[in-house]
Amino acid sequence: MAPLSRRGFVIAVGGTIAGVAAGAKFAAAAEVPALAADEYSQKFLDQYAKIKAAASGYFSPQGVPYHSVETLMVEAPDHGHETTSEAFSYWMWLEATYGRVTGDWAPFNASWAAAEQFIIPAAVDQPTNASYNPAAPATYAPEHPAVSDYPSALDKTVPVGQDPIATELKSAYGTADMYAMHWLIDVDNVYGYGTTAGTGGENGPSASGPCYINSYQRGSQESVWETVPQPSTDLFKYGGPNGYLDLFTGDSSYAQQWKYTNAPDADARAVQAAYWALKWATDQGNAGAISASVAKAAKMGDYLRYAFFDKYFKQVGDCTSPTGCAAGSGKNSAHYLLGWYFAWGGAEPGGGWAWRIGDGAAHQGYQNPVAAWALSTQAGLAPQSATGKTDWSTSLGRQIEFLQWLQSADGAIAGGATNSWDGAYATPPAGTPTFYGMAYDWQPVYHDPPSNNWFGMQAWAMERWAEYYYLSKDTKVKPVLDKWVAWVSAQITADPATGDFKIPSTLAWTGQPDTWNPSSPGSNASLRVSVADFSQDVGVTAALIKTLLYYAAAAGDTATQTLAKNLLDALAVHTTDKGISVAETRTDYSRFADPVYIPAGWTGTMPNGDPIDADATFLSIRSFYEDDPDFPKIQAYLDGGAAPSFTYHRFWAQADIAMAFAVYSELFGTTA
């Protein structure tokens, strides 16, 4: 299963695309050209055809990829027919791969056009950015470890730093608006907020969607089961008298406002996909066909630098007191890593204010050296801002050091670091090691479940590092990859004849790394990892296969190539009419009955009339689930029956499986 991860932050107040809609040109399996050069490129085309077939149900009528074909789905999104910037980035990557295999770049361009229409907020959706003051980016509000500690009171006595990139971005692109994907949209408007893209407002339950929504906002312990979904544009139509704002932020009064959260790993993946598209199209002599889309990716990469900065633009390093930690100036508030999120918002028209925040917490699973390398070295992806290229060059070096610092003695990569302990610039426990003054955190950002226990974070991140090594031949990362591949290879079993396979699922961590010394890195002898259990997660398996393939190609390692091929062939045995999937038992679905914390005396309603009060549960504020055709399986479980089993088709996973076939074809197809 995918992780119960999320994109959370504490608010700091201050149409159909041609060729992508289900049933359109690129949807019908019969219309996908049979141009396969070998067995594995044909498998790519077969999987691609299933994803694009209207009957499969991966896309909405408007041409937006769902998080999953199935509707009853709770993990990071809390409904299968929501979608994420993650899904859009995988779509772009899938279409880039399709362009390499077929020479047809129209679907790649269409994926970027759809992103601009549906998940990158338009000017009308972020209407007061002109009021943003880079000298005063946001008002501080501490995060808290427990959901019951919210709302969090704004504190204007805590100094915040200066935003050093807003002015140059405005100069480079001629607008004060942000160019970044919001992480979550309700594709079918299941909740009924109707915060429809391109309209700048709440259009209610009658809107067709897709609609901007958000969920996590209440600290590290808030799992998906404890969230209160809310509209990204809050006009006080739903929720309580102040909409949903006073569930999260404590203030003397509240104003109608808009707000968006970015998932930096997704935007970086979109840049990564654009790099591959540019490389492959150039190799075909067809770079001009995608030049406009590649320019959009370069622009996105420029704005993605907000992920480099401390949440409140405070100085990075030894930041252990809200008032004692100095406000940043220039770039001394940058850690140059990809943080967990950045966010921006503002008043509705007439309010005259806007805000922006970064994030001082960085997770190993979010780093993307391919994006950093492309944005800092490839002319076609050069940012237009004055310092964008330089910043990405600095980031690449810092990400490499971060990788080296976090490698355990066994080989797996540990969690990350934060510039703001507990999200409140608190003092870390005595003896906590540091990375450029940032405190080591084995579970950055979220704790239910621990954020680095899911093996998928290893596979996602190390696939990028293997790609980077394949492209750059950077010898600094080879020892890390050598050790990681040796560790993970010993954990894999795969029988291509029967389809039996297993990969790590949950990791257990002990110890901690040595404090980082760039001139003399430590051995991290006490930082250890073990595999707690295994799985057949098809999406993570695909990412792992790609990691092994790129490493094998770069290192000339035939044993790793064989292991990857065996795993790929075992995965392919599990074919369904919609893709490749393995049934999964969801014991966590007992949490449909979990209480959702609502402060005493707070009452409100969801758009469908579900009450929000002290008796709220995950299900009670999502009563629409009771009408889902799969809900009887949940009810039987809640009534004491067996845990339900589901065969899911997640968009990102199915796309990654398709790409695993294509990568094998590209790197080793002639020797298959």
UniProtKB/TrEMBL annotation:
The keyword Hydrolase applies. This is Uncharacterized protein. The keyword Hydrolase applies. InterPro entries: 6-hairpin_glycosidase_sf (IPR008928), 6hp_glycosidase-like_sf (IPR012341), Endo-1-4-beta-glucanase_dom2 (IPR023309), Endoglucanase_F_dom3 (IPR027390), Glyco_hydro_48F (IPR000556), TAT_signal (IPR006311). Keywords: Carbohydrate metabolism, Cellulose degradation, Glycosidase, Hydrolase, Polysaccharide degradation, Signal. SUPFAM superfamilies: Six-hairpin glycosidases (SSF48208). Pfam families: Glyco_hydro_48 (PF02011).
